[in-house]
Every structure is written in structure tokens, then in C-alpha cells.
Design a protein that fits this description.
This protein is α/β, with parallel strands linked by helices and 564 residues long. The protein is 28% helix and 17% strand. It is globular. The protein starts with 10 loop residues before the first strand and ends with a strand.
């Protein structure tokens, strides 16, 4: 495998609106990020991904961009962004931004010009189509609910949007539009950006006939993703994008890719793939309901373990994936993947260990490193997220009570990941001196950075040990390029695997169950590298080993260097 500069890096996602507010307006800002670069450096972070900071009406929290060349005033100025780039470079850190180019805001100049002249040049930057028999051109349901087609005022035409109606989709078949997007991307890369996380990118290829599809629910609509799954040719567009932008700068790119055909994985992240990497959403997909959040299944441990293992085994033949426990679009991982008895510091460390030491690029989401959890929501008016509001209505329409719909959204809402970062036990968790834009999780007095900084055995300090181990000169090679080999798969409650190369064999073993487990050791223990078990000396192997059996109590995790 050709070695790339980003292979051995650790990434960290910042949701700027909720990270740190320095001017008291209740919204996080660029100066807040700059002030915490040393904190992130100490955490072992090399690459910082910023969720959108472009000018936006914030209908979908900045994923509706009205000016690709401007910083939203809520976050600061372009001068402050340049300062962030410079300060990150001083620390040998990389900044990547969100790239949202499947759609833009309806306030973008292009769309405003398209509305002003629905038959003109700018209308072809989007998908304007005639209605059929006084109705929408086709029966596609948007990701946020309702029909994908919105009337163009004063005409019998409609425009297409796969997300909110304020997010019209861009027409990637138009070469003039594509070039304008490429010029914008290259402008940011010339500025010193190291790459992009690329939002919803597989949606850029449309079936231009927009045929009706068989309805998949009682509303007579079919999910728009079904069109994405049927259409051919997205690879040509992605290659054109890469060739005209990323490839020129050796940029690091991570794609948000759903609905990809399994056989296309080499085209996406192989030697000459469209992207450097894509996120592994295999665990996330386990909780996807057929009709919405209201029929989302709980994630069982065996499902979680098996989905991660399948993904690892598949991807290592091809390239690298980006491994996550959570992000801005998902509930908190501690609340989602751990049973009730493990939703504590010990269980949080266990989940972190089995994720961070997988093969691939680890992405840590802000607050994950201190074990932030889902908030307690007492009323649906507390939610800000457009998707949560839609899913609340979907649950009500499916016959659930107000109380039941609130419980469903409390469990699945994206706002769980967007509550302000918990820096201290001070008012508003130290996030702001003003009124926070979204409520602070009430557990901030127990879970916060300042308290954990002072506790040697905290989740935060454990995360630091994890990243230090992964990036250490002695073990970096095996954790970056070593093979992933599942272990003890038939033992209930155990998630274990080897990382192996020509020089080293490392075992990562965790007990997600409630009962103690004994695992036969097939190799001699050379070193106990890391454990969440409270023992006086981590080299006291007797704490784990009895008669050549590795003994793990509930929620124990251990990382062992073994003999070859």
C-alpha cells in the first residue's frame, strides 16, 4: 500500500456552534477553537474537522450555505479563520472543513437568480421541472420529510431538494456549475486547508427523468435515497471532482457515503479511489428504522461487534476507513452502544479502546473524550434540529402519544450531540457567559474537562493514553498498517481482536457482558500496554492471567503485546 501523510493521524470533529463561545452571544466561535488548540494537541489530535462555518441562514445548522467564500458572522471573520490556520500549522495540526456541494441555501445568489428567471441560465444550476397534472413531477420523499419538489412561485414548475426545501439540490450535470464549485474548493485549498469532509456526496447523481417509484409508506411517497441506489454514474462525477481539485493538493478527503454498492468500495477508497477514506457507518445503520425513528431497533452487542468486524475485514483488503463512535448527526455513543450498566467511566473507556485501536483513521467527536452522554429532554420545544422536529411529527402521525414521541426523539435526536461542550462545572458548563443557543446537558457538573484534567484515572486522561499508544514510535506501525484479526468471536459478551504485522502481535480484548469471562491465551504476554482496570502496576499480569487464561470482569478492557 502506498503510504500517505494522513494514515497514522488522529482526527477530531468540532461542531463550532457548540464548542466554546468567547463573546457571550451563546454561540461558539473561531476564537474559542483557537484557544483550545493546545488542549486538542495534548489529546493527540492531528486533524481538526470543522462542521460548516460558512455564511448561512442556519435552517439546517450551516449545511445550507448562502456564500461559500464567506465565514458566518456568528463564528467570526475570515481574518480569525486565517489565524486558526496559522496557529494550527504552528502545532503541526491540519484543518479540514465541511464541503457541502450536493445542495446550497435557497438564499444563495445562484438560487435567487434562478427564481428570478426560471427559464434562464441559473435555473440550470438546479433541477427545475414542470409539474405533472397539477402535481409534483415525482413522488420522492425528502430526507427531512415531505415531497422533494417545491413549487417555483408564479410558474407551473418545481425545484428539487433532497433535504429541506431551503436546500435546493445543485445540478452536477451542468459543467459551468461544476467548474464554479471546483474554483471554490481550490480557493480554500490554496488558502492552506488540508482537505475536506464531504457531505452527502453520493446524492449528487440523479436520474434526470425523475421517474415515480413504488411508494414505501402510507403517504404515497418513496424515499429519495431509492433513486440514488438505482442510478448509475456517480463515479464519473466523483473522479471529475477529484481530478480538478483534491488530487492537485494531496488533500485529505473523507466522504460521508451511504447507499454505496459494496462492489464499488475499491473505487471509493482503493489505491486511486475517489476519496482518501469514508466513514464506517455500519454500526450507525443498525438503528435505522424502516419508517423512521419510531421503529428504530435497539442495538444489541453482538450486532455491534459483528458489524464492526465485517467492515474491518472487508475494508483492510482495499484501503482505510474512518472509524467513529459518534458525530454531529448521531446520538452520543455511550448512550447508544453501551448497556445501562456500562454507561459509566469504565464502560466509556472500554468502548473507546475497541474503537480507537481499530485499523483506520480514528475520528473523535467533541465531548466524546470526556464521555458526554445524551441529554434529558423534557419537552419537544427544547429541540432545535430540523430532522428531530420532523421525526416527532412522524411518530405522532404513526399513532404515538406526545410523551412517546418525545421519548423516541430523546433517544435518537441529533441534538444530543449538539449540546454545548462541557468544559467545567461553572454556569453553562463553561461554554458561554451568555444564554447558550441549545440547552446544556444537566450532567455537566459531573462530566466536564476541568474535573477530568485533575483526575489521573478520568476518561479524558485515558483517551490521551490511547492516542499516545496508537501514535507511539514503538507501536505506530502495527496500529496503522497491521492486519485486523478477530478473536474469541464465539465467547458471549467479548469484543476482541488482534493487530498483527511482521514484528508485533497486539491483542485488544473487552468484556461487554455482566459476567466475568475467561479467554484461553494462545501466546505469551510480553507487555500489558493499557487497561481500564484499576491495578497498582499495569505490568502485574497476575491481575488478568490465571492458568493461561485471560480473565476479564464486566467492562474490563486490556491491550496486550503478545509473543509472535
Amino acid at each position: 500500500m502506498e503510504r500517505k501523510w494522513w494514515h497514522d493521524k488522529v482526527a477530531y470533529q468540532i461542531y463550532p456552534k457548540s464548542f466554546l463561545d468567547t463573546n457571550g452571544d451563546g454561540i461558539g466561535d473561531l476564537r474559542g477553537i483557537i484557544s483550545k488548540l493546545d488542549y486538542l494537541k495534548k489529546l493527540g489530535v492531528d486533524i481538526i474537522w470543522l462542521s460548516p462555518i460558512y455564511k448561512s441562514p442556519f435552517v439546517d445548522q450551516g449545511y445550507d450555505i448562502s456564500d461559500y467564500y464567506a465565514i458566518a458572522s456568528e463564528f467570526g471573520t475570515m481574518e480569525e479563520f486565517d489565524m486558526l490556520l496559522a496557529e494550527a500549522k504552528k502545532r503541526d495540526m491540519h484543518i479540514i472543513m465541511d464541503l457541502v456541494i450536493n445542495h446550497c441555501s435557497d438564499k444563495h445568489e445562484w438560487f435567487q437568480k434562478a427564481l428570478a428567471d426560471p427559464d434562464g441560465e441559473y435555473a440550470d444550476y438546479f433541477y427545475f421541472r414542470e409539474g405533472k397534472d397539477g402535481r409534483e413531477p415525482s413522488n420522492y420523499r425528502s430526507y427531512f420529510g415531505g415531497n422533494c419538489w417545491e413549487p417555483v412561485p408564479g410558474t407551473n414548475k418545481y425545484y428539487f431538494h433532497m433535504f429541506a426545501k431551503e436546500q435546493p439540490d445543485l445540478n452536477w450535470e451542468n459543467p459551468v456549475l461544476r467548474q464554479k464549485l471546483y474554483d471554490m474548493i481550490n480557493w480554500w485549498l490554496e488558502k492552506g486547508l488540508s482537505g475536506f469532509r464531504i457531505d452527502a456526496i453520493i446524492n449528487i447523481k440523479k436520474d434526470l427523468a425523475f421517474p415515480d417509484l413504488t411508494p414505501d409508506d402510507t403517504d404515497g411517497l418513496a424515499g429519495c435515497y431509492r433513486m440514488v441506489e438505482r442510478v448509475e454514474g456517480v463515479g464519473e462525477l466523483l473522479e471529475d471532482l477529484k481530478r480538478n481539485t483534491f488530487e492537485k493538493y494531496d488533500a485529505f478527503t473523507v466522504g460521508e457515503v451511504f447507499n454505496m454498492r459494496p462492489e464499488e468500495l475499491p473505487q471509493f477508497i482503493g489505491k486511486d479511489g475517489h476519496f482518501s477514506t469514508i466513514f464506517d457507518f455500519s454500526a450507525h445503520c443498525l438503528s435505522m428504522g424502516e419508517h423512521g425513528w419510531y421503529d428504530s431497533p435497539d442495538i444489541e452487542f453482538e450486532q455491534y461487534r459483528d458489524s464492526v468486524f465485517r467492515s474491518q475485514l472487508t475494508v483492510q483488503k482495499v484501503g482505510f476507513e474512518a472509524n467513529i463512535i459518534e458525530n454531529h448527526d448521531e446520538p452520543r455513543g455511550v448512550s447508544r452502544y453501551l448497556p445501562d450498566y456500562a454507561q459509566n467511566a469504565k464502560g466509556t473507556k472500554m468502548l473507546a479502546t475497541v474503537n480507537i485501536l481499530l485499523r483506520g483513521i480514528p475520528f473523535i467527536y467533541q465531548g466524546q473524550e470526556i464521555g458526554m452522554q445524551n441529554a434529558v429532554w423534557t419537552d419537544q420545544t427544547e429541540f432545535d434540529d430540523i430532522n428531530t422536529k420532523d421525526q416527532y411529527d412522524v411518530a405522532k402521525q404513526a399513532g404515538f402519544s406526545d410523551e412517546e414521541a418525545l421519548a423516541i426523539c430523546s433517544k435518537m435526536s441529533r441534538d444530543n450531540a449538539r449540546t454545548p461542550m462541557q468544559w467545567s462545572s461553572d454556569v453553562n458548563a463553561g461554554f458561554t457567559d451568555g444564554t447558550p443557543w441549545l440547552k446544556v446537558n444537566e450532567n455537566y457538573r459531573e462530566i466536564n474537562v476541568r474535573e477530568q484534567e485533575e483526575d489521573e484515572n478520568s476518561v479524558l486522561n485515558y483517551y490521551r493514553k490511547l492516542t499516545t499508544l496508537r501514535k507511539s514510535e514503538e507501536y505506530k506501525e502495527v496500529f496503522t498498517y497491521g492486519e485486523f484479526v478477530p478473536a474469541y468471536e464465539t465467547v458471549d459478551g467479548i469484543m476482541a481482536y488482534y493487530r498483527v504485522d511482521d514484528e508485533k502481535r497486539v491483542l485488544v480484548a473487552a468484556n461487554f457482558g455482566t459476567q466475568s469471562a475467561s479467554l484461553p491465551l494462545n501466546y505469551e504476554i510480553n507487555n500489558i500496554m493499557l487497561t481500564n482496570k484499576n491495578i497498582a502496576d499495569k505490568n502485574e499480569s497476575e491481575s488478568f492471567v490465571k492458568e493461561k487464561q485471560l480473565v476479564l470482569d464486566s467492562c474490563d478492557v486490556v491491550v496486550l503485546e503478545l509473543g509472535r
